Every structure is written in structure tokens, then in C-alpha cells.
Amino acid sequence: MNANVQQRVIKVISEILNRKESEIRLDASIRDDLQASSLDQMTLYVALEDEFQRTMPPEEVTELATVKDIVDFIDRKLQETPLT
Question: Which DSSP symbol is given to 42?
């Protein structure tokens, strides 16, 4: 897992969900532990798209349940060759 990606994801989650970065654990459930509504989650994914300059199609992110899931997903997305 890329530590830079992890740090940036936690920072975005912190800003969108109005939580302290220290409160956000990798095993935290976005919905249950961080109590993000569906709207919060979509806002979060849009912010992550902006942060990482990668598209996160809704059909791909619906299965992301924890902070670690998001970090791993973005890490994989960053390994893909960008479309030109």
C-alpha cells in the first residue's frame, strides 16, 4: 500500500466528512464507522477524483466499504495507464 496515497485519501475523507485525520482508521467503514450518507459518499468520490485525477465510475466504487478499500482501489487506478 502506498503511504502517500493513504495519507491523501485520509486527508480528503477528513475534509469531506468533517473528521480529524487521527480518527480515520484504515479498517473504518465509510458508512457505519464514519457515518457517511450516500450523498457524503458520492461527494467523497468526486473529491477523490479531483485529488488523484482519475475517474471513479459509480459501478466500481459501490463495493468500497472501508478506508483501506478506497486506498487500495486508488492505488490500482494510479497503476493504470491514463487514457490519452
Answer: H
